[in-house]
Amino acid sequence: MEIREERPLFSFGIIADVQYGDLDDAKNFTQTKVRYYRNALYLLREAVQHWKEGNKIQFVLQLGDVIDGFNTRHKNSENALRDVLREFEGVPFTVHHIWGNHEFYNFSRSYLMKSSLFTAQETQETANNVQKVVKKEADAAYYDFSPYEGYRFIILDNYDISMCGIGRDKDSPQYKEAEKILRERNRNEELNSPEGLVGLDRRFVMFNGGMGEEQLQWLRETLEVARQRGEKVVVSGHVPVHPDSCYVMCLLWNYQDVLNILQDFSDIVLAYFCGHDHEGGYHYDSGNEIHHVTLPGVVEVPPGSNAFGTVDVFTDRLVMHGVGQLDSRVMK
Ligand SMILES: Nc1ccn([C@@H]2O[C@H](COP(=O)(O)OP(=O)(O)OC[C@H](O)CO)[C@@H](O)[C@H]2O)c(=O)n1
Fold first, then answer.
1. What SS3 state is found at 267?
2. Quick check: CB of 158 below 6 Å from ligand 1?
3. Which part of the chain is the Calcineurin-like phosphoesterase domain (predicted)?
C-alpha cells in the first residue's frame, strides 16, 4: 500500500500584479476589464493575513507589478511602495519580490537595487545552510535560494533587456539591445502597440522584455549545479515563457531560449510561476512534465474576491490552494 505523507515538506505563498495605486478605478488599455487600484491593497492585506493565520508558509513569491505605473502621474510612486511594503512588515515569513514592467514605470533599476524590493541582497543562512540567497550580476535581480534541503527556487529578471519606463539607462547596452530587438520586429511608432504583428510576434511590444546571454548562462549553470546536488527546482519570473500558458502578447521576447533550458533540465524542473497576463493561465508541458502557472492579476479582481494561493510541496507533487480567481490544482 502506498503511504503518503500527511504534511507538506514546506509551503509557500504566491501573488501577482497587485498594481496598487491611490487612484480611481479605471478600465485597462483595451477597455475590457476594470482595474481596482485602491482595492488591490486590501486584497494584498487579506492575502498576508491568510498566510499569517495559516502559519505554515516559509516564504512568498510576489510575482511583480506590486504598484501601478499610473502612480507616476501623481508623483506618488514612493508613497504607494511604502504602503504595499507596510503590509509585509513583521510577517513571520520571507518575501521574494520579483520585478515586472510596472516597477520600471515607477523606478530606475538603481533605485530598486537600494529598495526593499531588491530581495536578492538578503543572505540568510540556517544551520544546514539551505536558506542561502545568492545574488549574481551587479545590476540584475536574478538569484536562487534553497528553502528546504533538496529544493531550489530560481528567480528570473525578465526585464534584464528592456526599454520599459526608466528602468534601464538609455545609454546602457541592455537598453540598446532591447531597442534593436523591438525596432526590428515592431514597425509601429508606439512600441507598445502590436498593430501589424501576427501570431507569436505579437509579443514584441515594449511592456515585455527579454533575458540576456549572461543571465541565460547563469540559469544553465545554476540548474547544472542543482542537478549535481540532486535538487528539484521551481523557477519564477514576472513574464510567462510558454505560449500556451498566456495570451501571446504577454510572452517573454526570448521565451524559447528559456523554455529550451527548462526542457533540457526537465528531470529536475517542476514548475514555472509568473504573472503579467491578468487573465491568468495554466499549461502542463506533458512531454517535459513541467507545470506553467500564470497567476490572475489582483488589480483586476472585483471587490469581494481575490487571487492568491498557497503551494504545499510534497515529495511527489505540488498542491496549489487557490483563493478566489486562482484555481486550486494538484501538480504531479
Ligand atoms: N495593447 C496595448 C496594451 C498596453 N499598452 C500600453 O502599454 C503600457 C503597459 O500596459 P498595461 O496594460 O498597464 O500593462 P500590464 O503589465 O498591466 O498588463 C499587461 C497585459 O496587458 C495584461 O493582460 C501602458 O502604457 C499601456 O497604455 C498599449 O499601448 N497597447
1. coil
2. no
3. 12-279
Is residue 72 in contact with ligand 1, taking CB distance under 6 Å?
A: no
Half-sphere exposure of 144 (CA within 13 A, CB side): 22
ipTM: 0.96
- For residue 285, how far is the Cα from the chain centroid? 19
Question: Residue 229: what pLDDT?
Answer: 96
Torsions phi, psi for 291 (to 5 deg): -95, 130
Q: Is the CB of 188 under 6 A from ligand 1?
A: no
| 46 Cα: distance to centroid of ligand 1 (angstroms) | 26
Q: Which is it for the CA torsion 215, 217, 223, 226, positive or negative? A: negative
Low-confidence ranges of the chain (pLDDT < 70): 1-5, 121-138
In the structure grid, which three cell numbers stand for residue 307, read together?
Answer: 487571487
Written out in words, the top-level CATH class of the domain with range 10-331 is alpha beta
Q: Does residue 192 have its Cβ closer than 6 Å to ligand 1?
A: yes
C-alpha cell belonging to residue 140: 540584475
Q: Which of 19, 106, 192, 295 to mutate to test the pocket of ligand 1 (most atoms within 8 A of CB)?
A: 192
Contacts 24+ apart (CB under 8 A), 132-137: 136/215, 136/218, 137/214, 137/215, 137/218
What's the whole-model pTM score?
Answer: 0.96
The CB of 250 under 6 Å from ligand 1? The reply is yes
